[in-house]
Amino acid sequence: MLQAVKGTRDLLPGTCQKFRHVEQTASQIASLYGFDEIETPILEPAALFLRSLGDTSDIVSKEMYRFTDAGGDDLVLRPEGTAGVARALISEGLAQELPLKLFYRGPMFRRERPQKGRYRQFYQCGIELLGVESPAADLEVIACGYHMLQELGLSQNLTLRLNSIGDLESRAQFREALKTYLLQHREQLSKDSQDRLERNPLRILDSKDPGDRKLLEHAPRLEQSLTPQAREFFLKVQQGLQALKIPVVIDPLLVRGLDYYCHTVFEFTTENLGAQNAVLAGGRYDGLVSDLGGPKVPGVGWAFGTDRLVLLLDELKSEWKRAPSFALIPVGERAEAELPKMAQELRRAGLRVDLSFSGNLGKRMKRADKVGATAAVIFGDNELNADRFQIKHLKTGTQTEVPRAQIIAELQRLAAQP
Ligand code: HAM
Predict the structure, then answer these.
(1) Cα–Cα distance for residue pair 84/89, rounded to 1 Å
(2) 3-state SS class at 401
(3) Residues 6+ apart with CB under 8 A from 184
(4) How far is CA 187 from the centre of its chain?
(5) CA 76 to mean position of chain CA atoms
């Protein structure tokens, strides 16, 4: 039997509805902050990610869906959205319109080992603020993310972790200090971290290995290597968050898996999703656009994993409100013939109407229950003769008789009830 590809899933209607709810909430809040939606292609040239994410990042070194197409082009199914937005800024000439505030959503692809909250095709919503050098931009994007999570009812279950990885100069200095320290303890490091020592020592800070974590307790701190300017920048972001009363934990071990970051990095994490604890993550990337051959345009942004937010909402047993719907149930041939016209009238009035296409009254009532209808409108010869229809409330089981001319008003009243 044909199965979905490993690490991909069918989002069935119930789940799909939850995805749309999360995306729509994100899009609405993004628009309050002045972000407009952009959609970039899923297929991008491989060079885009090779030049932006870094050769030593997990994504580039082992997770990209990269292939040569029939025309010989070297392509990748995008693993993330920021590089594509930066590419669009350059190729569409958007640098004339700075600052740019962009929101995006869509599927991303990484060939990771699948587990709960981690898929090979997953979905992100993200925002990017391009063209603003000041820490006010970092604050704006974090505040927007926090607002969305609040709107989804999740802010209580999440921790905002923040760090500064400084400018290029700060980072080069720290890399050397960290490497010197870790080389002295090389033998005690995990195999993975030993491999990273030469190529990308900063990523060792991210290690989940208990032995590595113990060693890191006494390692030099990134903070000690920050230049005065980088320190000042970091302080401004923290003060801004404090003024907005956004709770934050400074996490000196937070570094991000992608190479393009500088200064601010942050993640909202949860304890409710096992190992996959980051739900929204991002940071500043002042060198990205110029590294891709564009003008010097600073940027800051984040993306959240829509799959993970939906899982988290389920985990917290959040109530998913379904839009109210109504079942139309004809009894007998005359009513059956009348049904399409009735359904059309109600739908034109903005009411959601479900029809079951066959079966007796009992079977159709069962279906109305199953689709979660608020009420069923039942009509047969008697009702058609009297021009008065039965409305049965499915939650309470009570039944009322309503003149046909008033059915729309009555259903609209029911739909508006909480
Ligand atoms: P990222 O940390 O790689 O950052 O991904 C952001 C979020 O996407 C993660 O926190 C997680 O919720 C979700 N995610 C990542 N991989 C998976 C997966 N395999 N399955 C399910 N969810 C996943 C970025 O992608 C950056 N582009 C964010 C950014 C925007 N930085 C600046 N602007």
Answers:
(1) 9
(2) strand
(3) none
(4) 40
(5) 21
Q: How, if at all, do strands 100-109 and 36-37 pair?
A: parallel
Instruction: Please say whether the structural domain 13-167+227-315 has been given the CATH code 3.30.930.10.
Output: yes
Residue 261's contacts (CB-CB under 8 Å, 6 or more residues apart) are 165, 283, 284, 285
CATH code 3.30.930.10 region(s) in the chain? 13-167+227-315
pLDDT in tens, 107-116: 999 999 999 9
Atom of ligand 1 nearest to the CA of 267: 10
Give 281 Cα–ligand 1 centroid separation in angstroms: 6
Q: Could you give phi then psi for residue 351, rounded to 5 degrees? A: -95, 145
Rounded to whole angstroms, the Cα distance separating 42 from 87 reads 13
CA distance 156 to 121: 28
Ligand 1 atom with least separation from CA of 285:
32
Pocket of ligand 1 (CB under 6 A): 80-82, 110, 112, 117-119, 122, 124, 126, 128, 257, 278-283, 285, 301-305, 307-308
Using CA of residue 334, residue 339, residue 344, residue 345, what is the dihedral sign?
positive
Q: Where in the chain is the domain with CATH 3.40.50.800?
A: 325-416
Given this model, what pLDDT does residue 308 score? 97
Token pair recorded at residue 318? 């959040």
Contacts (Cβ under 8 Å, ≥6 apart) of 418? none
Q: What is the pTM of this model?
A: 0.92
Instruction: Report the nearest-CA residue for atom 23 of ligand 1.
Output: 305
Task: Give yes or no for a contact between 261 and 283, defined as CB atoms under 8 angstroms apart.
Answer: yes
Q: Does domain 325-416 have CATH number 3.30.420.340?
A: no
Mean pLDDT, the chain, as a whole number?
Answer: 94
